Structure formats: structure tokens, C-alpha cells
């Protein structure tokens, strides 16, 4: 198995996979998708993907429809995606994806978390290069053979295809998202969920005490309403 498999296995047990903020994050994704490509999912592949993720997260259909309607209102504030970079204690690189309607607030909050937890907020590009930006899709297992599917999807950008208890996962570079989404839809394969992740190229093993120091910062960051995802280079079991 490759890095995507190990990364997914490590994160699977972590708290943010079931954070209470899931619906809030999906709501922001809907706003950004609608503002970018309109409210019709048939003509808006990004919105189509967000709706799939909402379904996978058991978000009520009424909530999704209401979010789309609200996002279509020109008075609804749009969210800007901002990437923050820095270092946690013990040399662990931290990459933070946010979606904010107030950049000054978000910058001030993120900086305060680093300061309070003995971290260092970095400049643009200071740690982003340490992570591979990937896209992923989850589809039902059905009668599919992951190895055969991987061979068939290589030409569309797929780099790693593997099975877990929830279906088949497909990983590819960030730029291959649209191509793979279209191919899966053309094949009539149901997309259970999809998204983007940043996989660390190298991870660092820490002691229990050091892990606690890093997790203190991560927890502070994750509690912020503007934060969508947090990635790091700490080795996870």
C-alpha cells in the first residue's frame, strides 16, 4: 500500500473525522460552489460533489436545499479560501485550510493559537511544499476489483486505489479531480463522497509528551469556526 493508504488509516481514528462542525463546513462549501458555478448541480460539478458529501455525512436534504437557496441570494456573503502555514512545537509543520468572510479576524485568530501553544506562524510557501495536494473519491465496492480499476483509471490521473470497509478509495493529484469525476460518472459509478487532502511527504515520530504539545495546538486551531482542515507532519499510528 502507498502513502495515501497509510495517511487515510492514520487519520481515520482521529477526532476531526466526526467533528460536530461537519455540517457547518459543508454549508460553506455549498456557498462557495454556488457562488462559483450557480445553483444547478447538473451544470455545476463542484456543487454536485458537495451534495454527495452532504449525503455521506447524513446532512438532511432540507438543510442542503436551504443552503443552496441562501447561497443563491446575492446578499449572502461569500467565503474566501485562505491557507495558513506554520510550525507546531518540536518542528512539526502545520498546514491550515480556512474559509472566511473576514480575513483580518481569521489571521488574528490563527496567529494567536500559534503564539499561545509555542508554535510559529510561517509565511506563504514555508511548509506547503512538504505536502502533496491530492483529490479523492469513495465509491461502493460492488463487483469492482480495486487493482483492475486502478489500471483503468491511471490514464485519468489515478495514483492509488484501495479498498476499506466503507468502499473503494481513489487518490489522484489535485488537478485530476474533474477528469476522474467525469469518468466515474460516465461509467455510471456512484460517487459516495469526494474531496481534497494534503498528504505529508515525510512524517516525524514524537514521544507521548511531544505529541500532547502538538495536539494542544491542533485542537485550538480546529475549534475555530473558520477552519476547514488541519494537516501536519507528525507521524500517526
Automatic annotation (TrEMBL):
InterPro entries membership: Integrase-like_N, TACO1_YebC-like_2nd/3rd_dom, TACO1_YebC_N, Transcrip_reg_TACO1-like, Transcrip_reg_TACO1-like_dom3, YebC-like
Location of the TACO1/YebC-like N-terminal domain: 4-73
Boundaries of every TACO1/YebC-like second and third domain copy: 79-234
Keyword annotations: Cytoplasm, DNA-binding, Transcription, Transcription regulation
Single GO MF annotation: DNA binding
Similarity section: Belongs to the TACO1 family.
Protein's UniProt name: Probable transcriptional regulatory protein OIU83_04130
Amino acid at each position: 500500500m502507498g502513502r495515501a493508504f497509510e495517511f487515510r488509516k492514520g487519520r481515520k481514528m482521529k477526532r476531526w473525522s466526526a467533528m460536530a462542525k461537519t455540517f457547518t463546513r459543508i454549508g460553506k462549501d455549498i456557498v462557495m460552489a454556488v457562488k462559483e458555478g450557480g445553483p444547478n448541480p447538473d451544470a455545476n460539478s463542484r456543487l454536485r460533489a458537495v451534495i454527495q458529501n452532504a449525503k455521506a455525512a447524513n446532512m438532511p436534504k432540507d438543510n442542503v436545499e436551504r443552503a443552496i437557496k441562501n447561497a443563491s441570494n446575492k446578499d449572502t456573503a461569500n467565503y474566501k479560501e485562505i491557507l495558513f502555514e506554520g510550525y507546531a512545537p518540536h518542528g512539526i509543520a502545520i498546514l491550515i485550510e480556512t474559509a472566511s468572510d473576514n480575513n483580518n479576524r481569521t489571521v488574528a485568530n490563527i496567529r494567536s493559537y500559534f503564539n499561545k501553544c509555542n508554535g510559529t506562524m510561517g509565511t506563504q510557501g514555508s511548509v506547503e511544499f512538504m505536502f502533496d495536494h491530492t483529490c479523492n473519491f469513495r465509491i461502493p465496492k460492488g463487483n469492482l476489483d480495486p487493482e483492475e480499476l486502478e489500471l483503468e483509471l491511471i490514464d485519468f490521473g489515478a495514483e492509488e486505489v484501495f479498498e476499506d470497509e466503507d468502499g473503494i478509495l481513489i487518490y489522484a493529484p489535485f488537478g485530476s479531480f474533474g477528469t476522474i469525476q467525469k469518468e466515474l460518472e460516465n461509467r455510471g459509478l456512484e460517487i459516495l463522497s469526494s474531496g481534497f487532502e494534503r498528504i505529508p511527504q515525510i512524517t516525524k515520530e514524537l514521544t507521548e509528551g511531544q505529541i500532547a504539545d502538538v495536539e494542544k495546538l491542533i485542537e485550538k486551531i480546529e475549534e475555530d469556526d473558520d477552519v476547514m482542515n488541519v494537516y501536519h507532519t507528525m507521524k500517526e499510528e
